[in-house]
Design a protein that fits this description.
heterodimer, A: six-stranded mixed beta sheet, B: 114 residues, seven-stranded mixed beta sheet, four-stranded antiparallel beta sheet
Chain lengths: 115, 114
């Protein structure tokens, strides 16, 4: 059973426009969410995170929104740049003692920003 | 930001041999290190969690006798794939964490077993 879902395997956006990547989760114990960016044959790079006590976190061109009641979060990139083209992973962790640092990843969304 | 290195970055080996992959946190002490495996076009799958000085906790379906993890210090963890077979060919990625906020990932190791 997939606890973190990224239902769009790919997304194409024109340069300068907004990219919106979506993520849904099913486990109510998750209370911390992260977005990672990954290029082929490289490790993921941390982008931005959000705690469940917030509904928005912004860092430069990246903003993450969290809707706890819907168990949904999204990553907004604006304006999108060609260098943003990569696979974006949504990850979640829950406060469960020794397991609280573990991340559960979605399958990723491949973002292509077209010049 | 924090830097995590992995060595080697890629390895080709014959079936039946063992391969050791090192993961180091270069500029911080990692309370916990994680090992992931990624198949082509698939998500990162957590294999095991290790804390310095204690036995690793393996995820369901991961053979602990095949994937040996040693977390010898706060800056080094090793994954040894024992008696490797072609189906073990994959991209292995480690991460290191000093708190629950963020995991810092290594660049990954591509393993090809012939």
């Amino acid at each position: 059973d997939q606890q973190v879902k990224q239902n769009s395997p790919s997304l194409s956006v024109q340069e300068g426009r907004i990219s919106i990547l979506n993520c849904d989760y099913t486990n109510s114990m998750f209370d911390y969410f992260l977005w990672y960016k990954k290029y082929p044959a490289e490790g993921p790079t941390f982008l931005i995170s959000i705690s469940s006590i917030k509904d928005k976190n912004e860092d430069g061109r990246f903003t993450v929104f969290l809707n706890k009641s819907a168990k949904h979060l999204s990553l907004h990139i604006v304006p999108s740049q060609p260098g943003d083209s990569a696979v974006y992973f949504c990850a979640a962790s829950g406060s469960s003692g020794a397991g609280s640092y573990q991340l559960t990843f979605g399958k990723g969304t491949k973002l292509s920003v077209i010049p | 930001g924090a830097v995590v290195s992995q060595h080697p970055s890629w390895v080709i080996c014959k079936s039946g041999t063992s391969v050791k992959i090192e993961c180091r946190s270069l500029d911080f002490q990692a309370t916990t290190m994680f090992w992931y495996r990624q198949f082509p076009k698939q998500s990162l799958m957590l294999m095991a969690t290790s804390n310095e000085g204690s036995k690793a906790t393996y995820e369901q379906g991961v053979e602990k006798d095949k994937f040996l993890i040693n977390h010898a210090s706060l800056t080094l963890s090793t994954l040894t794939v024992t008696s490797a077979h072609p189906e073990d060919s994959s991209f292995y990625i480690c991460s290191a964490s000093r708190d629950r906020e963020t995991q810092y990932f290594g660049p990954g190791t591509r393993l090809l077993v012939l």
